[in-house]
């Protein structure tokens, strides 16, 4: 049983698709629907029920996600796979509006943790500018 029930929904959603997600990211093009639970953003930013369901509550929740023995490494591995395509834009990799969701996710986890990959993604794909809406909600 998961000791962190607020994270169980992410594990359940990722388990059957994570290999395919990594294959898509390594190929440099997102084709299927998994953005909400692989690159989560603040729940307050969600417009759909799915986005709210997979939303992260706050910085502490994001820190628990990063510290999780499966979810944290998975987020980092997926982020590194995107970073490998620095010659492409986030829009070319994710399409719209998922390129905006990726920026929100990178902003959230950059603020929550000490992993340089999130800041690198913001620098590479967004000119170093964090998502102002995410920053505003957390302020």
From TrEMBL:
Cited Pfam families: DUF1810 (PF08837)
Protein name: DUF1810 domain-containing protein
Species: Malikia spinosa
């Amino acid at each position: 049983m998961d000791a962190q029930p607020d994270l169980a929904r992410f594990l359940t959603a990722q388990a059957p698709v994570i290999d395919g997600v990594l294959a898509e990211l390594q190929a440099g093009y997102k084709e299927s629907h998994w953005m909400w639970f692989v690159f989560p953003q603040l729940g307050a930013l969600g417009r759909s029920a799915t986005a709210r369901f997979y939303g992260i509550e706050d910085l502490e929740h994001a820190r628990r996600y990063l510290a999780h023995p499966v979810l944290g490494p998975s987020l980092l591995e997926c982020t590194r796979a995107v970073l490998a395509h620095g010659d492409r834009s986030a829009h070319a990799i994710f399409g719209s509006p998922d390129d905006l969701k990726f920026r929100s996710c990178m902003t959230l986890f950059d603020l929550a943790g000490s992993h340089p990959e999130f800041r690198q993604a913001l620098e590479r794909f967004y000119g170093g500018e964090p998502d102002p809406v995410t920053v505003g909600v957390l302020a």
